[in-house]
Every structure is written in structure tokens, then in C-alpha cells.
Amino acid sequence: MKKLTKTLAAGTMAAALTMSLGACSSSTKEASGSGEISGKVTMWTASLKGEPFDTYFKKLEKNFEKLHPKVDVVIQDIPQDQMEQKVLTSLTGSDTPDVVNLNPHYMSNIAAQGGLLDLSDMVKDDVKKSYVDGPFNSGMYDGKLYALPWYLTTTVSWYNSASFDKAGVKELPQDTAGLYETAKKVKEATGKPSYYPVVNDGNTIMEKMVSLAKGEPIVKDGKAQFENNQAILDYFAATQKMYKEGIIPQEAAEGSLNTGQQLYMSGNIAFLEGGVTFLGPVESGAPAVYKESKAGQPLEKEDAPVNVAVMNFAVPAKTKNKEAAVELAEYVTNAENQLEFAKTAGTVLPATKKSLEDKYFSNPGDSPKATGMLEASKSLERAKVLVPPTENSADLRSSTKDIFVKNLQGKLTPEEAVKELASEWNKSFEKSGEKVTF
């Protein structure tokens, strides 16, 4: 058993649970030709200090080494915000990792530079079919498979049932018109702002736009297609009206999920969208609000796609132990180990179909957190990575946040805002030369 070392980095639980593998061994298969894998693989985890993760990874390491006695697994920790750069740096030297845990953006960036091994013919077909389609497809780049999905987070709606009951609201809205009417009723009943549109760095609004378009591309071959999309225009118009009428709080101009969380905990908003991890601080910091919290599907039509955030495993092209690396990536992401990890983390979903059939997800109980997990697992049926990683993603997010906030504050009409946003996206795609469609 090798020594497990971990360090804690800042960030949310979902952002923290990132894993990687690194190694500098040279052996692959026994000289006898039996096909038994051997050698050293070093597993990089990200920001997973202490229990319950120490015990989980020690067990994982022990069990894999029992299956493959000639393999030496070493687990180390890499801060998540340093992961991409450390992988890229390792590719220029001799100490290259064997397997790394990357989000789709990092994965595609490294794959585009030739840094990852093409797994298309190395991963068995039955393994490929074991994963949920949307998360599995997030590991594809340029028509090739570069990563296997490990754990997921997806969006649900959270609402304060006491505030909804006071307003006589029986269910969550499923379209923009219903969003306005529901939020207005709750605001009138409570005397406080009710709805908080999460903006973050602009990515959440981008994902909302894709959901609103319901499968129609908002970008086609690097050209914005949403300037005349009525559903997107309606959302911009409704949120501007709600902000002006005090239904959306002034703090929404800042837009972070953390701010929305604080407002929800203090009873100053009644509903918003977020992941299962959202309830963690609410449970400990505002137990009365937690008790009244309920979960539902995202605030879109049932046929609208919803976003899934994926953490996956990839194998660097310079690995010296391809067979062992692929075997370990398959092992860590198999149904049994994914289910166990999801239970250990408590706030993430597994990426295998069989794991999701377990009663832990199909019948989790009636606590607020359990209902959130149930709704999140339901939404996986229509979940996918809505906005693919692009070279100009930072520019797209920045312009989206800036223009959406101007729209909220009434500095632009909804029509002006959507037109200006389309123009900014087109300029960015022209500069990067990317011909993406999403």
C-alpha cells in the first residue's frame, strides 16, 4: 500500500472532486507474455484532504493492486486550479502522468495540442456503453475518445416551500411566463424579492440560452444564431422587468451562486437553480430554511436540454504505461466504484447507467438533500454539456455576463442586449477562427 497524500484547495465540493494519475514507470506487460499489467501508476487527486476520501482512495488502491499484484499505485494531490498547467508542463519533461482527471475544457485543450492518448480503440465497447450518453460524449474531441466520465453535477431548482405555500404556489414554473407569474406571487406574499438568476462568470446564462433554444443551435459554424430567438428575448425581457419591479434582488447584478446562497439562507429570496452541493451550507448555516427547502426540475420545459458538469479521466500521450493506465481509468470509473464514490461524496452523481439504478438514487428518502439527488438523477435523462469548450470561452463568458447585467439594470433594451451579445460573440469567433456549433 502506498502513502496517500492530499492537500486542501479552495473551492466548492463539486469543483474540488478532481482526480488525476501520474507516473514515471517503464514497465507495461510481463516478459512472459501473459498479458498481466505491471509497473507504477501515480494517481493525482485534487483538493480531497482527509476523511471520508482518504479511506475511499486507500481502499480503491488496495483493491486494484490485489487484482493486479505487479502494479504499484501511488496517490498524490494536485490543486485543481493547477491541474491543467501541471499536466501541460509534465508533457515537456520525462515525468509524465499516466492518467489525469480533467474537465471537458481542460481535456479538449490538451487533446488539441496532441497531449492525450486516443482511447477510441483501447477502451472496450462494453465499457463505452456502460456510461450515460451525455457525459460519455463529453470525452470526445474531434471525433475521437480521449476521456472516460467519472462523476457529474447537474442543475435542479431549489425553493422555500414555506414561501411558496404562503403565496399559494403549488408547483415550479416551466417557462419564462410562468417564472414571472410565480416570482411575482411569492414576492407579493412575502414582501421580499423571490427569484435569483445565477449569472456566475457568464457561463450559467450561456447554458440557460441553450436550454431556452430547446435543441436549436444558438451558434452554427462559429456564427451566433440567437439574435431573433423569441425564447431568449423573452427571458431577457422578463428578467429585466423582474429586476425593475424588485422581484429579482439588486444583488443579482453581482450574480454569483454564493451570493444567491446567502440570500436564500437569510430568507431574502425563495427560489433559484443550482446543484445538489447548494444545500450544504444551508443545512449547517440556516437549518430552519433547510427544513423548508424542496427540490424540483430545472425551470424549463421537460423537453429542454439541461447542462451537466463532468469530471473525467484521460491518459497523457507520453505515458510510459498505457495498458495499466487505461485499465486503472476503467476500474475507477466502473459502476461499483462510481456508486461508492458518489455515496462517499454525498453530493455528486455517477456517470454509469448501472450506478444510477441503485436505490441510493432511485429511492433516496425524503430529506431536502435526498430529493435534490433524486431530481438531479432524473434530469440526467436530458442532460449534456450544453456549451462545448472553446478557445475563446473566456471572451464569450465575459461578454455574456456584462451584457446580461446591463440588460437586468435596464441600460439596454432586451432587443439591444441580445443583438449586442450576438455581435460580440461573432467578433470573438472571427478572432479565434473556431467553427463550432452548439
Structure report:
The chain has 438 residues and is α+β, with helices and mostly antiparallel strands. The protein has 2 domains: 13-153 and 311-383, 3-Layer(aba) Sandwich (D-Maltodextrin-Binding Protein, domain 2); 156-306 and 385-432, 3-Layer(aba) Sandwich (D-Maltodextrin-Binding Protein, domain 2). It has 20 helices and 15 strands. Strands 4, 7, 13, 14 and 15 form a 5-stranded mixed beta sheet that branches. The protein has a 3-stranded mixed beta sheet with strand order 1-2-3. Helix 7 (161-167) packs across helix 8 (176-190), helix 8 packs parallel to helix 10 (230-244) and helix 19 (393-408) runs antiparallel to helix 20 (414-432). The N and C termini lie far apart (46 Å). 50% of the residues are buried.
